[in-house]
Amino acid sequence: MTDGVGEPTGPAPGDVFDRRMLEALVCPETHGVLTYDAERQELVSRAAHLAYPIRGGIPVMLVDEARKLD
């Protein structure tokens, strides 16, 4: 997305998550591996049974914001 002059303004709400971030991110609860669920736009921690939302291409790595998995 640009500002009309060709300068980038940051991610648009529909931007896709950059999978390279998975190399640096871990679950804040367990410090374990996360997997990317592209359909739900979430990062999933199977160990913690939590799914962290991705909003505007940015992962929200807060336990209070995570969805509990069954």
From TrEMBL:
Coiled coil: none annotated. InterPro entries: Trm112-like. One of its GO terms (cellular component) is cytosol. It holds the Pfam family Trm112p. It comes from the Bacteria. Belongs to the UPF0434 family. HAMAP family: UPF0434 (MF_01187). This is UPF0434 protein Wenmar_00525. It comes from Wenxinia marina DSM 24838.
